[in-house]
Amino acid sequence: VEDAVHAVMVHGEAIVDSITMIPGKPIRILDQLSLWEKDFWINDRGLDPVTGNFIYGNHRGIPYCMERVTSIFKDFESRTWQRKVINDSLEWTMGPDYRTDEQYDSNMDQIGGPSTRMNLSGREQQKQ
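The chain above was modelled as a monomer; its predicted structure follows.
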């Protein structure tokens, strides 16, 4: 596909010890990525290397798409790399410095809530 970078794992897959999902448990990783100017498509899957059971990822092998929120450019005057927001509607996803708790809660409610506990705002974590 034109104007995109596509990547697969060099050896097709890798078995690594999980650090965060299930500490110490081996996971078989299968990843494919495609990067366009404004979209990032990823089909990442983690499976139990013994049973083949899914630990994470899409069971049907369908990649999901993330939209670009920022772009990075070189500021030649300061000789530093800078980040520029290019998608104002998703700026709130960049972290607490870019949103209020009310914005976060409202936006998360619109998509059905967070998928994991660590995605909850501080106020929501205190309620649990």
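The beta strands are 5-8, 14-17, 26-35, 39-47, 54-56, 64-67, 70-75, 80-85.
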